[in-house]
Write a structure and sequence with these properties.
alpha+beta; globular
Length: 110
């Protein structure tokens, strides 16, 4: 199964793998094969794709606090969903700056 290409390296990502990031307020998203690819993507200007991510439409209500700073995520929040087989592991961050710092630190398992 081939899916969308990684927004950093271009490798195809299967639908049941990788990471999907979305900025719901701006209706834009990005796809990554590895968490580490988020860091250079943000450094180089976070070039989003237009559209929405299916996971963003069913964003859990409990995702209101930033995974990095624990503050309210706000309108400019970024939803990051790890696809691991049939499982979806979601986190929300204040914006792309916190997304980059969180990814740089190793994500939720740091």
């Amino acid at each position: 199964m081939r899916g969308e290409p990684c927004d950093w390296c271009g490798e195809p990502i299967p639908p049941d793998g990788g990471f999907r990031a979305a900025e719901p307020a701006g209706e834009r998203y990005a796809v990554f094969c590895r968490l580490e690819h988020i860091v250079p993507w943000v450094i180089n200007g976070a070039h989003w794709q237009a559209g929405t991510m299916a996971d963003a439409e069913s964003e859990p209500e409990q995702l209101v606090r930033c995974a990095l700073c624990a503050g309210p995520a706000g309108e400019a929040r970024v939803l990051l969903v790890r696809h691991r087989g049939e499982h979806r592991i979601a986190d929300v961050l204040c914006g792309t700056a916190h997304l980059m710092e969180w990814a740089r630190a190793g994500g939720r398992w740091a």
